[in-house]
Fold this sequence. Notes:
Elements: E1 2-3, H1 6-26, E2 32-38, H2 42-58, E3 61-67, H3 73-85, E4 91-94, H4 104-110, H5 122-129, H6 139-150, E5 159-163, H7 170-178, E6 187-191, H8 198-203, E7 207-210, E8 228-231, E9 235-238, E10 246-249, H9 254-257, E11 263-264, H10 272-289
Parallel strand pairs: 1-11, 2-3, 2-4, 5-6, 5-7, 7-8, 8-11
Antiparallel strand pairs: 9-10
Helix pairs in contact: 1-10, 6-7, 6-10
The chain binds NADP nicotinamide-adenine-dinucleotide phosphate.
NADP nicotinamide-adenine-dinucleotide phosphate is lined by residues 140, 163-166, 168-170, 191-195, 198, 211-214, 232-235, 251, 271-272, 275.
Amino acid sequence: MKLIEGKPIADLVYEKCLQDIERLKAEGKQPGLAVVLIGDDPASKAYVGSKDKKCQELGLHSVKIEKPAEITQEELLSIIDDLNADDAIHGILVQMPLPKHLDSEEVIKRIDPAKDVDGLHPYNVAKLAMDDPTGFVPCTPGGCQRMLIESGIDVEGKHVVVVGRSLLVGKTLALLMMGKGEGGNATVTVAHSRTRNLPEVTQSADILVAAIGIPHFLGDEHVRDGSVVIDVGINRIDAPETAKGSRLVGDVDFDAVKDKCEAITPVPGGVGRMTIAMLMANTIRACEMREG
Length: 292
Ligand code: NAP
């Protein structure tokens, strides 16, 4: 079994980011990322903190906007309008989920598609569906695809089964896998909560991707001998034996399936490592693509 770890692959992405940043600097340009955080959810705060830290490390211009959960939709939209108009900002990310009274779809649609480095604006989703490489690909599915490419796992002609159909992960990864670009051309099946005979479907996968959000949901009965397993899930479970009292696990029961897989991603230390790296790469590309 080969362990596909996220860190060395994320480091490759960061190496390229540093080269691009140097080149842009010589042209008098500095990529800028704005991250908007609404409310005080601890997990979201931690994500935003990591993104900000990575920007500082790489030398990106970074703006962190934090507002209380009581913010109105109009106030949030006006923050987006200001960031759209700000020439120092090339990428805008609104940390999800937003408090329930806010309309996240309207917020995403308000972001200038040329600054939508999270790739969730309908314009960028459509470009992905149309095999137009000039759009932005959401960071987590983009990171999964990069992990497969860098690990030398060619998906062309293979059967990829994605369990989960969210736009953020499952549906987008399915589009990437069936797309005609590098790391694509797979035969793709998407499974979800209404899928019948899930073990039968997942057993037919050459490459099985789990993006469900249920700890250890996929076990021995779901995984075929010799398949590749990509576990996108990040779930916190109680672990009284640890100092923290909890630990992170994936959607796949790693210990139950690892010996039968050709390759598998761990959690933590797998796909999760890629998301911020792809965000940085998207922000740099947004800067490169801007005219003038
Ligand atoms: P989500 O929006 O809740 O979507 C979960 C998907 O799983 C849905 O499509 C759902 O089907 C499907 N599902 C739920 N129960 C199922 C069942 N019993 N059988 C088959 N399918 C089932 O979650 P998400 O945002 O895609 O995230 C998925 C996981 O990835 C989570 O653990 C999340 O923490 C993790 N994640 C990690 C990263 C990262 O690595 N940086 C980024 C994003 C997400 P229906 O559509 O039918 O409800």
